[in-house]
From TrEMBL:
InterPro entries: DUF484, GAF-like_dom_sf. Pfam families: DUF484. It comes from Marinobacter zhejiangensis. Transmembrane segments: none annotated. This is DUF484 domain-containing protein. The lineage of its organism: Bacteria, Pseudomonadati, Pseudomonadota, Gammaproteobacteria, Pseudomonadales. PANTHER family: DUF484 DOMAIN-CONTAINING PROTEIN.
């Protein structure tokens, strides 16, 4: 091949073609020591470095990136482990609760004390009167009122996170000196919506629509299983006189 032919052939080669050839022949540079020594690449410092130096530099960058990713994964795993332990303690207290007020109080204590958040609320939807008046974090409203006040927030079965409207926040967390700015809301349902479990933060951006809700769903699934039987036990039975009147 003449020098002119070699030059013409080189001119027809594209960068992509050379790169593809080297990918298909990764052992091309074996035995090409002189060629490797003659190849130089620009460096951030401004000086030219050899291909081997460039490879070493890339390997070090890759190692540092992998190390940072590993540290981040370990940190996430530890964070999730702490969340799991807190969630487990919360659910154990809930299971041990004797009534709806105790259940709501256990949730409120855990959310504010263990999780370090600002407020928790459990709202039960029923038209039946309870044997005890709701206290603390527990509210009891009719299904109709819940639908009027929360509307589309009850449509799904997963957590809904965000800042919500002021009227919705006031309904979920009434009578607060410091208003709640962002909310995580989870419907409690079996075949139908029985209530909601809400967590509030005074920080506007603490809960947003993109945050994960794995542990909220984990807690709400357990509450959804416990709520129907607890409501059945602690709702007032109809008076005997009323039953007789209905059957007359």
């Amino acid at each position: 091949m003449t020098e002119q032919t070699a030059r013409e052939t080189a001119e027809t080669l594209t960068h992509e073609a050379v790169a593809e050839y080297l990918r298909e022949h990764p052992d091309f540079f074996l035995g090409q020591d002189e060629l490797l020594r003659s190849l130089t690449l620009p460096h951030d410092s401004g000086r030219a470095i050899s291909l081997v130096e460039r490879q070493v530099h890339l390997f070090r960058e890759q190692r540092d990136t992998l190390r940072r990713e590993l540290v981040e994964l370990v940190s996430i795993a530890r964070h999730n482990d702490r969340l799991f332990e807190k969630s487990k303690r919360l659910l154990l207290h809930v299971i041990e609760a004797d009534n709806l007020n105790d259940m709501a109080a256990a949730i409120d204590d855990s959310i504010r004390g263990d999780f370090g958040l600002d407020a928790a609320s459990v709202i039960v939807f029923t038209d039946q009167p309870l044997a005890e008046s709701p206290e603390g974090a527990l509210q009891v409203v009719s299904p109709q009122e819940a639908d009027e006040r929360l509307g589309d927030l009850l449509a799904g079965d997963r957590a809904v996170c965000g800042q919500f409207r002021e009227s919705e926040r006031a309904f979920l967390f009434p009578d607060r000196d410091e208003p709640i700015a962002s909310v995580a809301l989870v419907p409690l349902r079996d075949n139908e919506v029985r209530g909601v479990f809400a967590i509030g933060s005074c920080q506007p951006g603490y809960f947003d629509e993109n945050m994960g809700s794995l542990f909220l769903t984990y807690i709400s699934d357990t509450l959804s299983r416990l709520l129907p039987s607890m409501m059945q036990r602690y709702c007032e039975p109809p008076l005997v006189m009323d039953v007789v009147a209905e059957n007359s």
